[in-house]
Amino acid sequence: xxxxxxxxxxxxxxxxxxxxxxxxxxxxxxxxxxxxxxxxxxxxxxxxxxxxxxxxxxxxxxxxxxxxxxxxxxxxxxxxxxxxxxxxxxxxxxxxxxxxxxxxxxxxxxx
Amino acid sequence: xxxxxxxxxxxxxxxxxxxxxxxxxxxxxxxxxxxxxxxxxxxxxxxxxxxxxxxxxxxxxxxxxxxxxxxxxxxxxxxxxxxxxxxxxxxxxxxxxxxxxxxxxxxxxxxxxxxxx
Lengths: 111, 117
Prior knowledge:
heterodimer, A: 6-stranded mixed sheet, 43% strand
């Protein structure tokens, strides 16, 4: 069982917006601004999309945005495109001795 | 941006030691400020951070594997390595090396390690 809780799947049509949630506790998501989001296509390595809750690495589309409220972080993808279909994982720094914990992943289907 | 590439055996017998190497290119492994991490992904499952080594040699490991794991640097080869001993089938996973501590970017392509006799 993952330390952070994500929905198993979400879906949306091209052009729409979707939001993926990531729920933790005050020891991780709620306590620090070190939430990251990763995109993983089948057979590929994860790719960093968002770090420190809201920041995008250079080269990542501004259609991807992050936010946080309390113990829940969210990834929003606007203007859905077919290429966005992938698995998405959140992670957070934690005061637990594990240091970094991941969510179980969310499969995004673009209809 | 640095590039990372994992290498090592794809099959390890139970109770033996899993050994992987990550070769760093387009950057120096002992450049100040870099954390070098190992992360694994069990089949059809999520991600698990294993541990990191700082450019100065400091390490930190996930308690889930702390008693069995060692991460080390080889600055002469611009590589860092993972050793996980006493492996079982539960250690079967794709192993990734990556740069970072709270967030990870970039990642290597990953290498599948199967524990089986």
